[in-house]
Write a structure and sequence with these properties.
The structure holds 2 protein chains of 2 kinds. Chain A has 2 domains: about 120 residues, Response regulator (Rossmann fold, 3-Layer(aba) Sandwich), CATH 3.40.50; about 80 residues, Arc Repressor Mutant, subunit A (Orthogonal Bundle), CATH 1.10.10. Chain A is an alpha/beta fold. Chain A is built from 9 helices and 7 strands, in the order βαβαβββαβαβααααα. In chain A, the strands form 2 sheets. Chain A has a 5-stranded parallel sheet with strand order 2-1-3-6-7, sandwiched between helices. Chain B is an alpha+beta fold. Chain B has 11 helices and 7 strands. In chain B, helix 5 packs antiparallel against helix 6. Chain B is rod-shaped, with a radius of gyration of 51 Å. Chain B starts with a helix and ends in an 8-residue tail after the last strand. At the A-B interface, helix 1, helix 6 and helix 7 of A face helix 7, helix 8 and helix 9 of B.
């Protein structure tokens, strides 16, 4: 039995998403929210297994809900459901700890398939996101940041996977190229996202410290 | 013209020269003192040839003796200042000394004039010699370039003064007395010439410094200009990015939301698809308008993922070949967007209309052009009645887009042959500095 959070402000889209989710997870218990404020309240009250968050909401960005989920309920899979396909919007969400992303306008079957895949532990990764992640970790590795502890870096395998995704190879193809199963490749992607989240949080904490503010 | 007259004349000239030099170099007070020294010495030795002074003997003697402390003052001050050591107490003491000498002589009266004068002379000579010694020691310590020159001159002067003193006490035979009168003026002139030479050198080094400074200034202002240009460029980029975000946000909020609602609430599959395609177009248009140039290697990655992904979903066997090495070229945002559209259109046709089971896409760079060949083994594009290819299926728009990019799009098709779409885009026109 899955507890699912649905955060979306457009009522028609929310209804459509709900129908889709019920189709994919028939035994799911769905809680709906149309504003960040309501979603945050729900997060403090209920333990969720899956959260589908829109990014553009009237009272803020879904990224704050993703952050809160990552902090208080780290087992919850938060998936960003958005109309934006560019890495400028998606990358911060991933940095905040999102498990994956879904582009809203795609056909129903495709989204259902993506949700299934994520449920099985295979997050999506597009070439532009992969390039962004590569650039991010390359910047982290520069010696100009000697005080960034702990220093999170990618393993060789993970970098290889990222490079091939950036070149446009699909996960099954990469599996064949590296002699690994699709599942293993998907695990690498999960690891990469996790490291991205850890590194981004450490960076943010350091920045806050530098600015003289203190987080909890 | 006798020697003393010539000497005095020379000294007066030297004094004049020094005062003129001192005017342009107010910092170098030692030059003024040299001038004063020359003038003073000229006046002191004037008695050797100037006999027409309308004063009583005592008075002229008095005047002469009063003049000597001033000469000594000038000498001492010259030496001290030239060595670079200024001392207010000493200066005040020297001036006080002049007054003291005058007073003491008046008090002494004519009877004891010679005695008092001799005593003062001794004291003054001692002071000057002490100043000379100090000067020599100080320049030796500072390792000045003119140390040896000055040391020699001062030794000559000191020797001359010693000889003069000895002559006065009648310790030396008479041929020698003319020596001081000849040597001292020459020493002073030597000093004057030395200062002139120093002045010249200083002028030259100042000129060199000025030239170097100008060159440095030119460099600095060139640097500044470059920095400013860079900053301006960055600012333009920043403003463009912000504009892009704003436009994208506006479009996504209003237009995107409405289109999305149509996609998911329409009962007609066709309307949903149309709305979805409209959304895609909207994104691409925003990107093409205001986006940043894309590296060719990144564009190839994006295209590969999209094309291979779509083909595999629809059961068409896809084969993609493209250069795998790191390519330096970039595509402008517009070229990227238009090529994406052409590629999408072609793949759409293959999936929807061609009935093909296999499709191959080849990309290569050849003599500055980007070449894309999309081939499928489908049933081909039907011919129209006039033997030319059916202009539907987006062929016209593909050709038009290619032409807008200063390239071309050729289509070859036939039953049993499949379809080949060849797109060529020149890279120079769209290559922007990475």
């Amino acid at each position: 039995m899955k507890t699912i959070l649905l955060l979306e402000d457009l009522p028609e889209i929310r209804a459509w998403l709900k129908a889709l989710v019920m189709q994919v997870f028939p035994d799911g218990q769905i809680s709906e929210a149309a504003r960040v404020h309501d979603a945050l309240e729900l997060v403090s009250a209920i333990k969720f297994d899956l959260a589908l968050c829109d990014l553009g909401l009237p009272d803020g960005s879904g990224v704050s809900v993703v952050e809160k989920l990552r902090e208080t309920q780290s087992d919850c899979q938060s998936v960003v459901v958005t109309i934006h396909d560019d890495d400028e919007h998606l990358f911060p969400a991933l940095q905040a700890g999102a498990f994956g992303y879904i582009l809203k306008e795609q056909p129903r079957e495709l989204i259902a398939e993506q949700l299934q895949r994520m449920n099985q532990g295979e997050p999506p990764l597009s070439p532009s996101i992969a390039r962004r992640v590569i650039a991010y970790f390359a910047a982290q590795a520069k010696p100009a940041q000697p005080d960034l502890m702990p220093h999170v870096s990618l393993t060789e395998r993970e970098s290889e996977v990222l490079l091939r995704v950036a070149k446009g190879f699909t996960l099954p193809e990469i599996g064949v190229q590296l002699g690994l199963s699709r599942h293993t490749i998907a695990d690498y992607v999960k690891q990469i996202y996790r490291k991205l989240n850890v590194s981004s949080r450490a960076e943010a904490a350091l920045e806050a410290q530098r600015l003289g503010l203190f987080r909890r | 013209m006798t020697l003393p007259t010539a000497a005095s004349g020379l000294l007066l000239l030297l004094a004049a020269l020094c005062f003129v030099m001192a005017r342009s170099r107010r910092r170098d007070s030692h030059v003024r003192y040299l001038g004063a020294l020359s003038l003073g010495w000229a006046l002191v030795t004037a008695r050797l040839w100037w006999h027409g002074l309308p004063l009583a003997n005592f008075d002229s003697e008095l005047l002469l003796v009063c003049l000597t402390p001033m000469v000594a003052l000038a000498a001492v001050q010259f030496l001290l200042h030239y060595a670079g050591w200024r001392s207010r107490p000493i200066e005040v003491a020297l001036y006080a000394q002049c007054v003291a000498v005058a007073l003491s002589l008046l008090l002494a009266g004519p009877l004891r004039l010679h005695m008092t004068a001799s005593a003062w002379y001794a004291l003054l000579v001692a002071q000057v010699l002490a100043a000379m010694a100090f000067f020599v020691w100080s320049t030796w310590r500072a390792r000045r370039r003119d140390f040896w020159f000055m040391a020699v001159l001062l030794s000559l002067a000191a020797a001359a003064v010693a000889v003069e003193l000895a002559a006065q006490r009648q310790l030396l035979p008479s041929p020698w007395p003319w020596l001081p009168q000849a040597v001292l003026p020459l020493v002073l002139v030597g000093l004057g010439l030395h200062l002139v030479r120093q002045n010249g050198r200083a002028l030259q080094s100042a000129e060199e410094a000025r030239v170097a400074l100008e060159a440095h200034m030119r460099e600095a202002s060139a640097d500044m200009e470059q920095n400013y240009a860079q900053l301006a460029e960055q600012r333009v980029e920043q403003v463009t990015r912000q504009e892009r975000k704003r436009i994208a946000a506006d479009l996504h909020d209003d237009l995107g939301a409405k289109l999305l609602t149509i996609v998911h609430t329409s009962e007609s599959e066709r309307i949903s698809t149309l709305a979805r395609e409209a959304l895609e177009e909207m994104r691409l248009s925003v990107r093409g308008l205001t986006g940043k140039p894309v590296k060719l290697i990144d564009a190839l990655g994006d295209w590969r993922a999209e094309v291979v992904g779509r083909l595999s979903q629809t059961g068409v066997e896809g084969e993609w070949s493209a250069p795998s090495e790191d390519l330096p070229q970039t595509l402008s945002a517009r070229a990227y967007v238009q090529t994406t559209r052409i590629l999408r259109e072609a793949v759409n046709n293959i999936i929807k209309h061609s009935g093909a089971s296999r499709c191959s896409i080849r990309c290569l760079i050849d003599s500055g052009d980007f070449q894309l060949a999309i081939q499928d083994n489908g049933k081909g594009i039907p011919l129209e009645l006039d033997g030319r290819l059916d202009r539907g299926h987006g062929m016209a728009s593909m050709k038009h887009r290619a032409k807008q990019l200063h390239g071309q799009c050729l289509v070859e098709s036939g039953p049993g042959y499949g379809t080949v779409i060849r797109l060529t885009i020149p890279l120079e026109r769209h290559t922007t500095a990475a």
